[in-house]
Amino acid sequence: MAMPDVHDAAVQRANEALQTYTLSGEGWRHSPGETLRQALTDLLHWCDDTQRDFDAALEHARIRHADESGRAGTS
Which end of the chain is more exposed for a tag (fewer CB within 10 A), N or C? Predict the structure, then answer.
């Protein structure tokens, strides 16, 4: 399991990032799951415009998450 301070800091950053969507004109009407989907969709568009590889970034994020959660090397 991730160290509580690492986990808590990550959750806080995610909450702050997603708050922009939640507080938007239409955001308050959406579920947390829909808010997450919208943020991910916007990141896909951003990757298109900036020539970033979303799938590679997601894979690296999964590896980092597994490492921080103490699940690295397990399937």
Answer: C
